[in-house]
Amino acid sequence: MSLIIKNLTKQYNKNKIGLTDYSITIDKGVLGLLGPNGAGKSTLMKIIATISKPTEGTLFLDGEDIVQNPDRIRKVLGYLPQDFGVYPNLNAYEFLEYIAAMKGVGGKDLRKRVDMLIESVNLTADAKRPIGSYSGGMKQRIGIAQALLNDPKVLIFDEPTVGLDPEERMRFRQLISELADDCIIILSSHIVSDIETIADEVAIMKNGMLLEKAIQPDIIKKVEGKVFETLIDNSELNTIKTKHLVVNTSRQKDKVNVRYITRANQPEPGSTTVAATLEDAYLFLTQTN
Amino acid sequence: MQYSFTLLKADYLQRTRSYFFLITLAITVYAAYSFVPPNTASYTTLSVPGYRGAYNSAWVGYVSATMTTVMLSLYGFLLVNSGIKKDIDTEVGLIIATTPVSNFKYLLTKLFSNFLVLLTIAGITFAVSMVMFLLRGSGYPFIFADFIIPYIVFALPALFLVSGLAVVAEVFLSKRTILQFIIYFFICGAVMANINIPKPGIPTAVFDPFGLSLVTGSIKNQINTQFHEHIDQVSFGFIFSSHHKTFRTVVWNGVNWTSIFIFSRLIWIALSLALVYLSSFFFHRFDFNQSISKKKKALADNRQTEIIDLKPAPISKGPLPAIVTDYGILPFIKTELLLLVRKGSKWFWLVSAVVWVAMLFAPLDIAHAYLLPVIWFLQVTRLSELVTKEQTYRLHYFTYSSYKPLLRMLPAQILAGVALMVVLALPLIGRYLLVFNTFAVINIFCGAVFIVLLAVCLGIVSGGKKLFEVVFFMLTYAVTQKIRAIDYLGATPHESHTGYISVLLALILSFGLISFFVRNYQARHL
User: Fold this and answer.
1) Distances (CA, A) of B172 to A86, B87, B179, B276, B279
2) Cβ pair B422, B415 in contact under 8 A
3) Mutating which of B332, B397, B520 best tests the A interface, going by the most A Cβ atoms within 10 A?
4) Which residues of B touch A100 (CB under 8 A)?
């Protein structure tokens, strides 16, 4: 299964562009989308989820144009939007059965399926309560369960770990790994460590354009040998900021430990080279492009 | 003061930057145009049996101000009574609650914001009234004061009062929208009914919150004096009639304002402010837990403990049963009905049940013309949410990305809505079937489809609930007043049943098509 996106442009109005001539091929596995706010991640996901029409360009799922025939992907789609809601008067069973009806999932085993999904996201004890009384994390888990109702072949998760506690986040990552063998998973997150641990490939976006798409080691290579750390006085920080791309600072008594990427391969005296991470590469690509 | 102005400005802009408000303005222009009917029209707006005013500046200006006051007193409340609710829904209220803005200042901002919204609408009717004078003018001179003074002296104070009452209603009845409508409707009805009743020894106009009795009294006195009549009633509103095709023309030059009347308007304005001030002591300030009973609170605390005690199990998909595809709409209808039933307070079901039982025993014409529109109107918040709830609860991402949403979801919502309305009309349908009156049954059924499709269409086009709620209120009021042209449920006899049904079916079809095409666009353009 593959999703081919060709020359996608989304223009909301004269002054607002969501995507510009965006092309990418997505195969089975997990694709992590990284980018600052307004990079076009949600726009791309909405277009793939068929709830937004591109101004130009095409999307093919296994060779079939899904801009013209959106129902082709809808049958196999699992989508968790960033700011979704629920009907507060329904309980978890009723809500998931309703979503199942939308996805065309029925039959006598539906209740069992819903039951198992509720159990898998650890909501059995609260399943008969109105969802309106759930906490943010519980609602997010209901969102994850609904995305899996129809055994999706294309899964889109827009900021899926928002509201989940660290333990739930870890479990969510395990779930993604479990699913990645036989479907396309597109996942966006502001938390680079989430993408780092889950994604097979990473796509970095900025201003509606694709800056880079590759497997993680290839992306990290872009900054290898350029990342340094040094301990300085607080007063020197601004000088370093003007010369290098500072990616992190941490206070250590009266000093500041600065992690930076050098632009001209001229590190500060006394700096030590450190191993580059995806976060370094992401910041380097988005700040320098 | 500067902060209050900023708050007021933001609130006003938030309310007026919507499709709903644009549609309201369009309707206002049409309504203002119809306030001054041509001589050949089959209706009047300010009516004295057998008489009609010459279209001079005073008549056109006062009629326009009177009609604006009447219309905005009735429907203006519905237009503006959700200012606080909006802050609850958007959770902006929680931010406001943490700021130093006092309850009174906040409510005062809402009062002025309500007033500005109504003032904008009144401004349009005022402008159109001058255009209408030029269009309908009969050679009388244009006197600007005749247009502006009635607006300033009685229309604006009345709108200020309506704005204040809307705030007070929201403070005390919070989200109970239907109850607010009903109580306000009765208060307003009582005030309007008293306008033409003179009370010996009491200056009626002073105690008339809308200030209309001075105008009606002045017109009445002039006709009685000039034509030696004994007319005791002046009607206002859209009055359709095939009688009185020939009218005697009366040249009326306006009202002589008394200082006591003008002072009384200031008193009404002060009363509005006082009511808002008093209500500020009872304002929830977006802390709803304070109104939870101890029992409920204890229950909530227990639940909280349960949640904390839970030991989370791993999120894992595991081996799920095989998928069985089913693209039918029955599960949707089931859920839509469930949502309709669970929506709103249980007390309203009790009220509906009482009206439902009353329809079994009341005389047929009463049950059809009064009880049926009332029981249907009690469902206003259910119907207005039929197609807007996905966006309200941000579920439209799921709906629009589902398989064939327009062919499955939309029909299911319409069918659920119609089923609810038909079930509520069952006592009447049963009684008509017993007397073999199939026309009446068809009328009721078409009326149910019409009102549901109207809710769907206005909800989809405006993207909100308010427009339908206001229109439904106006329709219900018109039906209970037996205005034949607006009788969508066939409660009054029509000259041609086929013609009536044809018009209704054409409207139903139009609403259906508009809804389909607009939603089709919306589903792909989030």
Assistant:
1) 28, 16, 11, 11, 8
2) no
3) B397
4) 331
B432 part of a folded domain = yes
B376 part of a folded domain: yes
Residue A175 to residue B348: CA distance in whole angstroms: 45
Q: Which residues contact B272 (CB under 8 A, 6 or more apart)?
A: B111, B160, B161, B163, B164, B165
The Cα–Cα gap between B28 and B403 comes to: 40
CB contact under 8 A, B314 and A171: yes
Q: What is the pLDDT of residues A215-248, one digit of tens each?
A: 999 999 999 999 999 999 988 889 898 889 999 9
pTM greater than 0.80 (yes/no):
no
Q: Which amino acid is at A93?
A: Y
- Residue B303 located in a structural domain: no
> Which domain-ending residue is among B256, B289, B322?
B289
For residue B317, being part of any structural domain is answered with no
pLDDT along chain A (289 residues), means of 10: 92 89 92 92 92 93 92 91 88 91 87 90 91 89 91 91 83 85 89 88 93 93 92 89 91 89 85 93 88
Question: Is CATH 3.40.50.10860 the classification given to domain A2-220?
Answer: no
In this predicted structure, the answer to whether residue B244 has a pLDDT above a threshold of 80 is no
Domain that holds residue B497: 330-523
**Nearest residue, CB atoms, B324 vs list A81, A94, A107:** A107
Mutate to test the interface with B, among A71, A98, A157 (most CBs of B within 10 A): A98
CB burial class (10 A; 0-12, 13-18, 19+) of residue B160?
Answer: buried
* A5: β partners: A24, A59
- Vertex B177: Cα angle to B175 and B181 (nearest 5): 150
Task: Select from B289, B314, B339 the last residue of a domain.
Answer: B289
Percentage helix, strand, coil for chain A under 3-state DSSP, each rounded to 5: 35, 35, 30
The answer to whether the Cβ–Cβ distance between B395 and A146 falls below 8 Å is: no
Say if A35 is an interface residue toward chain B (CB within 8 Å). no
B274 with B408, same domain: the answer is no
Instruction: Tell me, yes or no, if A284 comes closer than 8 A to chain B by beta carbon.
Output: no
Pick the residue from chain A with its C-alpha nearest to B300. Answer: A133
> Most distant CA pair in chain A: distance in Å?
71
Count of the separate structural domains present in chain B: 2
Size of chain B in residues = 526
Spatial distance between the Cα atoms of B198 and B234, rounded to a whole number of angstroms: 12
Cα separation, A83 vs A159, whole angstroms: 9
> Torsions phi, psi of B204, nearest 5?
-50, -45
Is the distance from CB of A132 to CB of A89 less than 8 angstroms?
yes
pLDDT of residue B36: 86
Tell me: the pLDDT tens digits for B100-117?
A: 888 999 999 999 999 999
Q: Could you tell me the residue ranges of all domains in chain A? A: 2-220, 222-288
How many Å apart are CA B518 and CA B526, to the nearest integer?
A: 13
Same domain, B398 and B475: yes
A residues 196-235 near B, CB within 8 Å?
none
Burial class (CB in 10 A: 0-12, 13-18, 19+), B30: exposed
A-B contacts at Cβ under 8 angstroms = 152
B183 and B60 both lie in a single domain: yes
**CA-CA distances (angstroms) from residue B384 to A232, B418, B462, B465, B472?**
63, 13, 11, 5, 9
Instruction: Please tell me whether residues B216 and B348 are part of one structural domain.
Output: no
